[in-house]
Design a protein that fits this description.
CATH class of the largest domain: Alpha Beta
CATH superfamily of the largest domain: NADH:ubiquinone oxidoreductase-like, 20kDa subunit
Bound molecules: iron/sulfur cluster, FE3-S4 cluster
Largest sheet: 5 strands, parallel
CATH topology of the largest domain: Rossmann fold
Number of domains: 2
Helix content: 25-40%
Distance between the termini: 57 Å
Structural class: alpha/beta
C-alpha cells in the first residue's frame, strides 16, 4: 500500500508541497517543531491508514465536509489520503459486493483499521438496517476489531438531530453502544474536515491518539470556546452589539451576542481553522454560532435568542458558571441544559 508521500508524488505534487502539508498539520495539532522530522518520516514511510466508514442515521453532511472543505490537503490527495475500504456514499460497489468487501477488510486489517461512524445508532434494531442487519449489529461487528472508533459529527458523537425530542427512533450516540474501545468524538454539524485529517495524521505519525478531553474530543480542537478565539471579541468586550441582522452595527462587524450567538458555550475550532479552505466560518459570514458541536444543541431550541434571556431563571452569570465547570469535564453543558429544562 502506498504512503502519503507517494500519493503526493503520483498526483504531481512536489516534496515541497508534501513538507508544507506536514508542517501545517504539525502546527494545527499543536505539536512542538521538534516532532516535525518524526511526522515527516512517518508520512513518508508508513502505509496509508485503513478506514471503514459507516453511515447510520445521518444526512451525509459529515462526509461532504470531509471531502470538500479541508485546507490541509489538495482534494485529489485527500481522496487518497486514507485507504477507504468501505463508504456507502463514496465507494463504487453496491449491494452484496459492498458488504462482502467490508467483511474482507475487517478480516484482513484486524486490529489495525480505523472505524469512522457518521450518524446516530438505534439499539432497538428497528430502524436503519443495511443488508438485513440493524445498525446496532453493524456497529458492534465493525467496532470489535477496530484499532479505535471515531464518531464524526454531532449525530454520532451526541445523537444529534435524530435524537432530538421526541427522538422517534430511539437514537443514541456511538459511545453509548461501544464501551470497550476508545471512541473519539469529533462533533459539529458538520465537523471541520481538517480536524479528522489531523487526528488521523497524529495517529499515523505518533502511533497514538491526540489527547482527549472528558467528552472524548481532541483537546487541541475543542479545548477552547468559539468566543475565546472570535475576532469579534473586542466588540463584545467593548459592549458593542449588532441589534438586528441588517443594522448599521451588524455591517460594522459588531458582536452577534444579542442575535443569539452561542459562541460563549460552544467548543470548536471554527474561528481558527475555519471552513472551505480556511475562507470563513458562520460568525465571519454574519450569522451567530448556534452551538452545533455541543450535545443537545437542537433541543435547546433557542437559536436566535441571546444567552442572557434564553429562559427565565437563567442569567448570563449562570451560563458563565456553567462554562467554567464545563472547562473541567464538559459537565457545565449538562448543567446548563438542566437549568433550561427548569431544574434547580
Ligand atoms: Fe463571542 Fe459570538 Fe460575540 Fe464572537 S460573535 S465575540 S463568539 S458572542
Ligand atoms: Fe457550528 Fe458554531 Fe462553528 S454553529 S460551525 S460550532 S461557529
Amino acid at each position: 500500500m502506498k504512503t502519503l508521500f507517494e500519493v503526493f508524488k503520483d498526483k504531481g505534487y512536489t516534496r515541497r508541497d508534501f513538507l508544507k502539508f506536514a508542517t501545517l498539520t504539525t502546527a494545527v495539532l499543536g505539536l512542538p517543531p521538534s516532532l516535525m522530522p518524526k511526522v515527516v518520516k512517518a508520512l513518508e514511510t508508513k502505509p496509508k491508514p485503513v478506514v471503514i466508514w459507516l453511515e447510520f442515521q445521518d444526512c451525509a453532511g459529515c462526509s461532504e465536509s470531509f471531502i470538500r472543505s479541508t485546507s490541509l490537503l489538495p482534494t485529489e490527495v485527500l481522496l487518497e489520503f486514507i485507504s477507504l475500504e468501505y463508504h456507502e456514499t463514496l465507494m463504487a460497489p453496491s449491494g452484496d459486493y459492498a458488504e462482502e468487501s467490508k467483511r474482507e477488510a475487517i478480516e484482513k486489517y484486524k486490529g489495525k483499521y480505523i472505524l469512522v461512524v457518521e450518524g446516530s445508532v438505534t439499539p432497538n434494531g428497528v430502524y436503519c438496517t443495511v443488508g438485513g442487519k440493524s445498525n446496532y449489529e453493524l456497529l458492534k461487528e465493525a467496532a470489535e476489531n477496530a484499532a479505535f472508533v471515531v464518531s464524526v459529527g454531532s449525530c454520532a458523537s451526541w445523537g444529534g438531530i435524530p435524537k432530538a425530542s421526541p427522538n422517534p427512533t430511539g437514537a443514541v450516540p456511538v459511545y453509548e453502544v461501544i464501551k470497550d474501545k476508545t471512541v473519539v468524538n469529533v462533533p459539529g454539524c458538520p465537523p471541520i474536515g481538517d480536524v479528522l485529517v489531523a487526528t488521523i495524521v497524529h495517529y499515523l505519525a505518533l502511533g497514538k491518539l491526540p489527547p482527549l478531553d472528558g467528552l472524548g474530543r481532541p483537546k487541541t480542537f475543542y479545548g477552547e470556546t468559539i468566543h475565546d478565539r472570535c475576532y469579534r471579541r473586542a466588540f463584545y468586550n467593548a459592549g458593542k452589539f449588532a441589534e438586528s441582522f441588517d443594522d448599521e452595527k451588524a455591517r460594522k462587524g459588531y458582536c452577534l451576542y444579542k442575535l443569539g450567538c452561542k459562541g460563549p458555550i460552544t467548543r470548536n475550532a471554527c474561528p481558527t481553522i475555519r471552513w472551505n479552505g480556511s475562507l470563513s466560518f458562520p460568525i465571519q459570514s454574519g450569522h451567530p454560532c448556534f452551538g452545533c458541536s455541543e450535545p443537545d444543541f437542537w433541543d435547546r431550541g433557542f437559536i436566535y435568542k441571546p444567552l442572557s434571556v434564553v429562559e427565565e431563571g437563567i442569567s448570563f452569570k449562570d451560563i458563565a458558571t456553567g462554562v467554567a465547570i464545563g472547562a473541567a469535564a464538559g459537565a457545565g453543558i449538562a448543567w446548563i441544559n438542566k437549568k433550561l429544562k427548569g431544574g434547580k
